[in-house]
Structure prediction request, 351 residues.
Amino acid sequence: MRAITVEPGIANSVQLEERPEPTSDPSSLLIQAVALGVCGTDREIISGAYGFAPPGATRLVLGHESLGRVLKAPGDSGFAVGDLVAGIVRRPDPVPCVACAAGEWDMCHNGRYTESGIKSLDGYAAERFRLDPAYTVKIAPALGRLGVLLEPASVLAKAWDQIERIGRRSRSWRPKSVLVTGAGPVGLIAALMAVQRGFALHVMDHADSGAKPDLVHALGGTYHPLVLPTDLSVDIIVECTGAPQLVLDVISHLDGEGIACLTGLSAAGTMQPFDGGDFNRRLVLQNEVVFGSVNANRRHYEAAMTSLASADPAWLGGLITRQVPLPRWREAFEKRRGDIKVVLLFEDLPA
Ligand code: BGC
Prediction:
C-alpha cells in the first residue's frame, strides 16, 4: 500500500512510498483511508522543524487529521464495517501522569505523550491503518467527507471547554463578544463555535477579500482585514495565528474579566518589544486571564462532532478550498493563495 512518510528533522525528505499492509490484530479496527486534512504542523514536519519517528524507525508516516472507513471491526468494539471514523491524535504517556491516567492526555504533564503523524507514532497518511477502538471516533453519517474537519474542530472544542471552565470563576461575568484572530480553518471553526454559543463575533485576518470574509459574514460576524479598530473591546479572544506580535497586541482588546485563549504555535527566538509592566497591570487590575490550549481528549472530539453536525454543511464545505487526489499528493502540502483547508483524497466516498 502507499503511505506518505518523512524523516523528521530532515527538510523535504517527504515521499510517497510502498509500505507493507497493516499487520493483523484482532483487537483493533482496520481502516481504509478516505481523506486526510493538511495543516501547518504537517508543513512544519516536512520542513524538518518538528516531528519524531516512532522508536526504532527513521521515518514517520505523516498525517493526523483523518477520515477513514472501517474495513474490519472486532465484534465487541462498538464499530461496524462501513462506519466512517476519525482517529484521535494523542495517546497517553506510559507513566502515566495524573492527567493521562484520567483520560486527559491533552493535559499531559511530562511531555511523554505520543501523537499520530507528529510525535513517535505513525500517522494516518496511509491507504490502510489500524486504530484502537479506544482512540477512534464515529463520524455522524450525515457529515460524510466533512468529517475530515473533526480533528481541528476537536482542538477548538477543547479551547471553548477551557474558556467556559475559566469563565465560571466569576458569578457575575456575562460575556457577549468574541474576537478570533486568524481566519484559517482553526480560526473559522473557533468562530463557528462562538456563534453557536450566541456571541457577537469579530474575526481578524490578513486576507482582505475572498472566501475568508465571506465565511465570516455568513456567520453574521464582523470581519477586520489586517487591523483591529483601536476601540474594539471584547470579552473573549481566541488567538489562532501564533504570530508573536499579534499575540501580544491582541490582549489590549480584552474587556474587564476577559479571557484570551492562545491556540497558535510559534517558533521560539523572535524578540518583540513588550511592556511587561502594562501587561501585568492590565491582568491584575482587570482580573483578566491569558492561557494556552493544545490538542483534545475524547470528550472534546465528541463535543466537536455535535458542533459540526449542527452546522450548515454548505458553510463547512466552504472551509475545504482544495481537494487533491493521492497521485498528486505533493500539491496538497503546498501553501497556495486562497487556501483554507486542503484535503488529500485517498478514495471517493461511496455514493
Ligand atoms: C494538532 C494537535 C497537536 C498539536 C501539537 C496540532 O496540529 O492538531 O492535535 O497536539 O499539533 O503537536
Q: What stands out?
A: The radius of gyration is 20 Å. The domain at 154-292 is CATH 3.40.50.720 (Rossmann fold).
